[in-house]
Amino acid sequence: MTNLSIERPRPVADSLIMIGRSMRHTVRNVDSLLIGIMLPVMLMLLMTTVFGGAMELGRDHYVNFVAPGVILLCAGYGASLTAMSVTHDMREGIIRRFRTMNVLPSAVLIGHVVTSVVRNLVSTTLVVVSALVIGFEPRATALDWLAATGLVVLFVLALSWLSAVVGLIARTVEGAASFGFFLLFLPYLSSAFVPIGTLPDWLQPVARHQPFSPIIDLLRGLLLGTPIGDSGWMAMLWCGGILLVSGSAAALLWRRSRD
User: Fold this and answer.
1) In a domain, 88, yes or no
2) Considering the domain boundaries, does residue 2 fall inside one?
3) What pLDDT does 160 receive?
4) To the nearest whole percent, how much of the chain has pLDDT over 90?
């Protein structure tokens, strides 16, 4: 009698396969590529060239002030695209097919999230290069740049898992896309583009007690040497909290989606 053994899924190998799959989909999606390339550059030019001259800081100094905010705005919006990718997979039936195969189904989410991180690192590089071209003058050391990169990766990782949760909940790809508009709008109610003290009194508490402000202030401090204050631990608390809650929610929703 022959003993038949069922090969178990290989988490690492399966995750690498799904990362490659998500990467190929990203490259083939011309619209997303154009948005990823053009949005960071256009936002940087818009904020500095169009609005910079009207700021009390002056255009040259405003480039330094606004660059960290544009970096995180673009990273947040880029991470939100994960929601649409996840919803597309869930509604097209490919997940059900994966579950009939010897593949770790949850590797699909890992593939989407890791691809989001890689895609946003490219987008962040474009923001930094365009900022340098128009006058950005960072004072960061090599260690500061490393810390800033780690902060951006943690931020994108947290928002990508949050986007995955939205993607698992959304009924349509269009519905999932609405999360991107929320993340594109929220930085405008923070310290990204103007000092919080210049905002209306009723809006200042909103700007101070939302995730973008401390993360932007920490990134600004790392790149420009400005005072960080409480922004360091607040930024880590926001990123860690979002990552923990979103990761747990994604795991729970993923298990329920099998029913």
Assistant:
1) yes
2) no
3) 95
4) 39
